Amino acid sequence: MKGPAISAIILAGGQARRMGGTDKAMQMLGSKPLIGWVLERLRPQVEEILINTNQKNPAYQDWGLTLFRDEISGFVGPLAGLHQGLQCAQHELVATVPCDSPFLPLDLIARLYQGLVQEEAQLAVARTGDQLQPVFCLCRKSVLGGLTRYLESGGRKIDTWYQQMKISEVLFDDQVDAFSNINTMEELALLTLRAEEKKL
After folding, report:
1. Residue 26 in domain
2. Is residue 1 part of a domain?
3. Distance separating alpha carbons of residues 186 and 194, to the nearest angstrom
4. Is residue 89 part of a domain?
5. What domain range is 43 assigned to?
6. With contact defined as beta carbons under 8 Å apart, do 57 and 26 qualify?
7. CA distance 158 to 162
8. C-alpha 86, offset from chain centre
9. pTM for the complete prediction?
């Protein structure tokens, strides 16, 4: 049975300091930018996609998706993107993924939803081994109030906010590599070589 409609936020609002402040989402990997890979794998899984970006790159318009900036200034991290995204999303369930994990699981949303429902949680988050993958999550819009209070109190760490809620940790040990992300130009170059070898 098909689950409820879900919105997804691609988090592309960071400063990418380790990449020289470049617009990470638009860096090319093989035949398309990183965000293009993410979109390709995410589109079949959700009913709405929004992009959180604080860049003024006109190329984002080409995707024809809703764009929004952080409401909280100062590049305070992924929670700022989620906070504003929860207010922009059309649906009651909202997922987040980063812009720099081009091979995210094709069954990411389905498995997060299963964990959310089975454990009657407020938020489901991916886990590989003993490590949380905190920016891969699915939450209910009802978390907005608590998130607002957390941010207004000066909280910024996503892991600390999770500790305040009932969460479901969904194991993805069968797809650890799918959560690989790009933080430096060197990592991008290495992954580009791998993509070329596979003719991606």
Report:
1. yes
2. no
3. 13
4. yes
5. 6-197
6. yes
7. 6
8. 13
9. 0.90
Q: Is the predicted pLDDT of residue 15 greater than 70, yes or no?
A: no
Q: Give the pLDDT confidence of 22-31 residue by residue, as tens digits.
A: 788 888 888 8
Instruction: Give yes or no for residue 180 having a pLDDT over 70.
Output: yes
Produce one character per residue of 130-159: b if its CB has 16 or more CB atoms within 10 Å, e if not.
Answer: eebbbbbbbbbeebbeebeebbeeeeeebe
Q: How far is C-alpha 46 from the chain's CA centre?
A: 13
From residue 147, alpha-carbon distances to 6, 56, 81, 82, 116 in Å are 19, 26, 11, 9, 18
| Residue, of 82 and 20, whose pLDDT is higher | 82
**Higher-confidence position of 63 and 86:** 86
At residue 155, does pLDDT exceed 90?
yes
**Contact criterion met (CB below 8 Å) for 81 and 99:** no
Domain of 133, CATH number, reads 3.90.550.10
Q: Are 13 and 53 in contact (CB under 8 A)?
A: yes
Close Cβ partners of 151 (under 8 Å, ≥ 6 residues apart):
72, 76, 79, 80, 83
Residue 183 to residue 200: CA distance in whole angstroms: 20
Question: What type of residue sits at position 176?
Answer: V
Q: In this predicted model, which residue has the larger pLDDT, 52 or 74?
A: 52
Domain count, the chain: 1
